[in-house]
Amino acid sequence: MASAGKVGRNDPCPCGSGKKYKQCCEQKAHALSPMAWIAIVGVAVAALAAIILSFTTTTELTNITCPPGQMWSVEHGHCH
Questions:
Q1: What is the pLDDT of residues 32-43, one digit of tens each?
Q2: Does the pTM of the predicted model rise above 0.85?
């Protein structure tokens, strides 16, 4: 039997279920809280969004037809 105050894994669970501690409340003691899960999911979603946005780029319009005597200005986004 474990010392007073500490429950061993194979001791009866102190909640009174009749199961061994390792099969009952030990799993609950190591579980993450709902707020921790929300934080983990939030960080994962933000990281995924950052990864997706890092692959998106603006595409230059290369098939623009300007009037005769003018050229497309990439800097200004119109014909000069």
A1: 888 999 999 999
A2: no
